[in-house]
Design brief:
Structural class of chain A: alpha/beta
Number of helices of chain A: 9
Strand content of chain A: 15-25%
Largest sheet of chain A: 8 strands, mixed
Helix content of chain A: 10-25%
Strand order of the largest sheet of chain A: 6-5-4-3-2-1-14-15
Oligomer: homodimer
Chain lengths: ~300, ~300
């Protein structure tokens, strides 16, 4: 189950109402941030979340609106006494770009910064979560991410345990991976509950690598810079329309779709929602600082 | 006369209430920005001002909280179609730092960016205004700025003109700097109205170069990171207290003092105001987005 906090839902240029791209996702004890536009640190400050608990930051591409908030956020964490290590990943060039920007204002950060470039197909662990990168198409090195929660073992089925003659201290043997009476833990448990998954695309035009990676993912957070009436702009600048995002969610069998990175030209975002929902009904167009939770019954706005 | 818009009055680390350092000053047709902390572009967007009309940006030093908003602001101006040239000045290292940060996200900006390092004592014109730099002491290359409005010639004194026999077309001769009947324009005009001046210190401990440069300046915008009870912090980190700022304003004969760059430890800034006002009564402690105007009668909060 995810808590999804939309810190900035604007595109390219901020506005009075919309900050630059950044989405925070919490699952159990672990929190990650996707993209870090200028102003992200302050958006987190005015939210109910703490950036001190961030385990990983994943940058989709090195355009300033997705990236210029990163050095300030890192330096602020340091000044506020962070000690926990922080994972930072992005496409080719991320290490160099971040080092360059931090070097402008040199100083001891005070915690371990685990920064590395990451290629499509690579996977990294952030606490209990696995985050893998997939290739997108935005005219420069770019990638989206799929975040997966761990699978959770089902509860012990008391009747099965009893009929297999498993009692008392036998369980500690099974817990350690052993067998008793030829029976293993999974034989007496309810089925594994599959961890939920979430994908964040960053900026991209529709592409096969995206739909391949997102297939079967539960929650899709997709850029939708334009609507179909500006398809020429979308194609020219390697972006997607709301309809493109909805088509991807439908094709991939997702449960829900959030549209982000929406151009300032859409003063009323209802047009984006309508275009997508006609193709994929379970679509949401969050405003800045909107918090959603995934539940067994679906998406809940908090 | 100045319009002074305090975009960010916080220090080092932003908070829910206070953005990072940036102060916009407008005088007649000309507008300049002092410092450009992360998030400045959006602070301007939520204010009544336009960053498209900025003629110059002056950075006091290259700590991130004073500087990390600059590349994003420049790129946004470009994306929004700015064509007018923009002057950017800062201490030694500014050209290199800005080029470095912009190079992370390369692209055509679309207007002339006149960036240069500036040394204490240097002066630059921004439209009708003159901006000169003075040395400060912050442990790294740092400087404050004095902004001067042009002097304005007094009105023609009709009685003087008549008694000197100046009539009709004689005035065009005088306007061009000539004399008629041995009389020049200034002989028949009321006294010159001296242009007002304003100083912005950036981060600094008290220093003689500051008081020397600020002497006789009308409006002083001075950092006041701490109060006297944290004097040890102020000394350790090359900062000033509210009392230091007030003492400088008093010593320099300023008309009014604004305290900025106030540590987040002061939840109630009244303590900073009281400390300064006990030394220099005409002290103001602005909140973010506060707009003040200088008038003949003094400072007016708008």
């Amino acid at each position: 189950m995810f808590d999804i906090l939309f810190l900035g839902t604007g595109a390219s240029v901020p506005s009075r109402d919309y900050a630059l791209p950044a989405v925070l996702v919490r699952s159990g004890p672990d929190t990650v941030l996707f993209d870090c536009g200028e102003g992200t640190q302050r958006q987190i400050m005015v939210s109910p979340f703490s950036f001190m608990k961030l385990g990983g930051i994943f940058i989709t591409h090195l355009h300033g609106d997705h990236f210029y908030g990163l050095p300030g956020l890192i330096q602020t964490m340091g000044m506020m006494g962070r000690k926990d290590p922080l994972i930072v990943r992005g496409p080719e060039g991320t290490v160099s770009a971040l080092e360059t920007m931090l070097s402008v204002c040199p100083g001891e950060i005070g915690f371990e910064l685990d920064v590395a470039d990451m290629s499509p197909g690579d996977e990294v662990s952030v606490g209990t979560l696995k985050v893998s990168a997939f290739a997108t198409e935005h005219g420069i090195p770019s990638q989206g991410y799929v975040l997966k929660e761990p699978d959770v073992r089902g509860k012990v089925d008391a009747a099965k345990a009893e009929s297999a003659g498993i009692t008392g201290k036998d369980f500690s043997v099974l817990e350690e991976g052993g067998t008793v009476n030829g029976v293993s833990m999974e034989d007496i448990c309810e089925p594994v509950r599959r961890g939920k998954s979430l994908a964040y695309t960053g900026d991209t035009r529709p592409c096969a690598t995206l739909t391949e990676a997102v297939r079967g993912v539960d929650v899709l957070i997709h850029e939708a810079t334009y609507t179909e009436s500006e398809r020429d702009h979308a194609e020219r600048f390697f972006h997607s329309t709301a309809a493109d995002a909805a088509s991807a969610a439908k094709e991939c069998g997702c449960s829900s779709l959030f549209l982000v990175h929406i151009s300032n030209r859409y003063k009323d975002r209802e047009v984006c929602l309508k275009e997508a929902a006609a193709i994929f009904p379970e679509t949401y167009v969050p405003v800045d600082l909107a918090l959603y939770k995934t539940t067994k019954k679906g998406i809940k706005s908090v």
